[in-house]
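Researcher: Dear colleague, please comment on this protein.
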Amino acid sequence: MDLNRICLLGRLTRDPEVRTTPGGQTVATMTVVTNLVWVDQSGNKQEKPEFHNCVVWRKLAEIVGQYLSKGRRVYVEGRLQTRDWVGQDGVKRYRTEVVVDNLIMLDGPRGSGSQSREEPGVFAGETVSAPPVAESEEIKVEDIPF
């Protein structure tokens, strides 16, 4: 058995971009930054940001487009996926992305830090998940080797 799972806790670097595919599905792309912070040998605080490209589909993409914006803190769960294509210059390119299937908004609407009464539906800390996957793709607890 294999497991492809990623969990991130970070901030959006820009507003999500929401589009509709020719087939009519909604897709949103966003970038989440996570920071590694440590103190070096000379006692100076060091920081290394890591940027994660995320893709969100269907209803969850609509929610992301409506409620998330640059600077919002989010927790995302999903799987890593690498896709490739040939660019206009003839060079083969690769992009590794997190395909998000679960998302928790960690601060108030539009980065306010508190919940607003004018924005019903999704609240800070509320988990928003993609529709369940088909039964054959589901991972059963008894199949996990640890």
